[in-house]
């Protein structure tokens, strides 16, 4: 089987800023919230309701809800599949998704 690789890479969208838990972060327009948080060194996006443990990106397919975050005026969403927009206000999901 031939090796599959990207020759030219991926063109990032324009740089934007968004806010996560009161901290202003840089992202690329259209990038997933989970991706932008990981690039910023933030591994935990929510707190589990059973043990109050930090939880974060896991499956990468939008199935598990481990990357859930709260988006202002929109509620709790899966961060791995939700695109960043300029000025978006995002916060940790406090165990209220399970």
Fold topology:
Layout: E1 15-20, E2 23-28, H1 33-39, E3 46-47, E4 54-55, E5 68-71, E6 75-78, E7 89-92
Parallel strand pairs: 1-7
Antiparallel strand pairs: 1-2, 3-4, 5-6, 5-7
Structure description:
- By secondary structure, the protein is mostly beta strands.
- It has one domain (15-92): Ubiquitin-like (UB roll) (Roll).
- The chain is built from 1 helix and 7 strands; from the N terminus they run ββαβββββ.
- The protein has one helix at residues 33-39, and strands spanning 15-20, 23-28, 46-47, 54-55, 68-71, 75-78, 89-92.
- The strands form 2 sheets. The chain has a 5-stranded mixed sheet, with helices on one face. Strands 3-4 form a two-stranded antiparallel sheet.
- β1 and β2 form a beta hairpin.
- The model has no long low-confidence stretch (mean pLDDT 84).
Give the CATH topology: Ubiquitin-like (UB roll)
Helix and strand sequence: EEHEEEEE
Structural class: mainly beta
Binned strand content: 25-35%
Rounded to the nearest angstrom, the distance between the terminal CA atoms is 42 Å
**Any idea what the shape is?**
globular
- Counting DSSP H or I runs of 4 or more residues, the number of helices is 1
> Which sheet architecture does the biggest sheet show?
5 strands, mixed
Structural domain tally: 1
Number of strands: 7
Radius of gyration: 14 Å
């Amino acid at each position: 089987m031939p090796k599959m690789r990207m020759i030219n890479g991926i063109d990032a969208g324009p740089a934007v800023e968004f806010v996560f838990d009161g901290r202003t972060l840089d992202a690329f327009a259209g990038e997933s919230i989970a991706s932008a948080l990981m690039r910023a060194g933030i591994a935990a996006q929510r707190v589990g309701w059973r043990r109050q443990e930090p939880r974060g990106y896991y499956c990468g397919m939008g199935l598990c809800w481990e990357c859930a975050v709260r988006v202002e005026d929109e509620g709790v969403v899966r961060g791995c599949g939700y695109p960043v927009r300029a000025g978006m206000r995002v916060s940790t999901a406090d165990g209220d998704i399970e």
